[in-house]
Amino acid sequence: MATTNTFVWSGLDKNGRKNQGEIVAASQAMAKAQLRKQGIAAKTVKKKAKPLFSFGQKKVKPADVAVFTRQMATMMKAGVPLVQSFDIVQEGLDNEAMRDLVGEIKNEVSAGGGLAPALAKHPKHFDDLFCSLVGSGEDSGTLDVMLDRVATYKEKTEALKAKIRKAMTYPIAVIVVAIVVTGILLVKVVPTFAETFQGFGADLPGFTLFVLGISEFVQVWWFIMLLVVFVAAWGYSQAMLRSKKFRDRVDALALKLPVVGTIVHDAIVARFSRTLSTTFAAGVPLVEALQSTAGAAGNAIYARGILQIRDDVTSGTSRYQAIRATGLFPTMLLQMTSIGEESGSLDEMLGKVADQYEAAVDNAVDSLSSLMEPIIMSVLGVLVGGLMIAMYLPIFMLGSVI
Questions:
Q1: Is 25 helix (H, G, I), strand (E, B) or coil?
Q2: End-to-end Cα separation, the chain, in angstroms
């Protein structure tokens, strides 16, 4: 894939009025050629300068892709030509990385390529399922309908992920703050009290001695402890990146965790149902649909199970029997699949299953958040309050010394 750059231009538009703007192209010559096609007589075309102080360009997030898909679907439904839709959507994007990505796709399509092949050149942002659905829409002449379905699929999927992330972010943030505050108290505040206690001339309470011992240990070894945490985090990220066996174990453990395991299971079932419902409605062949669904499962255990379903269906087993044989999916999904196969409305039945389990995940996440708040505040109170009590306990007992 050719590297593209953003160019700043100024010149006269079709009506002879002065105008200026930005355009994404592989080179300055290509930028001028694109401007000529748009009827613009460019006087200057210069590569856009990068800011002197930059903290890095924003990355393209799945949520950006979902918004882009919805905007394209809206434009296509309104009858706006495909290339013009790209121009309109690109101008309204704030994320420069996403704007560049849309510009690259537009250039591919303008050069005579199809939308699906153009998207397939960016597998990091548009997976096989996305490209397959768009390709089906192009082949059948229903690109606007297919983009709408893909947009709905992406929106629901991202909403589910965001809900789970939100539930996990709050407790993790509070725990990190609690650890930092406790560390500061042990390293900076407790030693000050320790110097004061040396002149008391009496035995300190056992609880206070225990906290002072912890403080001395942390003062000596805090750097090593911090280094161990960073090494452990780095080791975990590398193991997840490089070791399939390790990822499989983590995925299996996630399903066994109390409360959280149920949320993970329901989220996977919802994603499986939503993906299959979307692919069936789009007319994607079953084997190809199951292959894409396995890639979107988000859990190694279920990915293997879906591939097993694909193999069983290929050998002639019914979808109901193939799904049941894995032992991974709930009775409701099995029953709805059976009804859908018999009535010829499998996409509709799977859509209802997805709605049911997405609602279940929402309720479970809300309940978990409500449950975690008092627990976290209690832990925070015990940590900080315990340290304060340990430090002030000798002062309260000072009267007995006097």
A1: strand
A2: 82
Q: Are 288 and 296 in contact (CB under 8 A)?
A: no
Scanning 185-259, the segments in alpha helix (DSSP H) are 190-197, 206-242, 244-256
| Separation of alpha carbons 181 and 204, rounded Å | 24
Tell me the DSSP string of 141-153: T-HHHHHHHHHHH
Handedness of CA 280, 311, 296, 250 (dihedral sign): positive
d(CA 65, CA 129): 14
Residues 19 and 8: their CA atoms lie apart, in Å, by 11
pLDDT of res. 54: 46
The residue type found at 338 is: S
3-state secondary structure the chain: CCCCEEEEEEEECCCCCEEEEEEEECCHHHHHHHHHHCCCEEEEEEECCCCCCCCCCCCCCHHHHHHHHHHHHHHHHCCCCHHHHHHHHHHCCCCHHHHHHHHHHHHHHHCCCCHHHHHHCCCCCCCHHHHHHHHHHHHHCCHHHHHHHHHHHHHHHHHHHHHHHHHHHHHHHHHHHHHHHHHHHHHHHHHHHHHHHCCCCCCCCHHHHHHHHHHHHHHHHHHHHHHHHHHHHHHHHHHHHHCHHHHHHHHHHHHHCCCHHHHHHHHHHHHHHHHHHHHHHHCCCHHHHHHHHHHCCCCHHHHHHHHHHHHHHHCCCCHHHHHHHHCCCCHHHHHHHHHHHHHCCHHHHHHHHHHHHHHHHHHHHHHHHHHHHHHHHHHHHHHHHHHHHHHHHHHHCHHHHC
Reported pTM: 0.67
Q: Are 83 and 106 in contact (CB under 8 A)?
A: yes
Amino acid identity for residue 220 in this structure? V
pLDDT tens by residue, 67-118: 888 888 888 888 888 888 888 888 777 788 888 888 888 888 887 778 888 8
Q: How many CB atoms lie within 10 A of CB 235?
A: 10
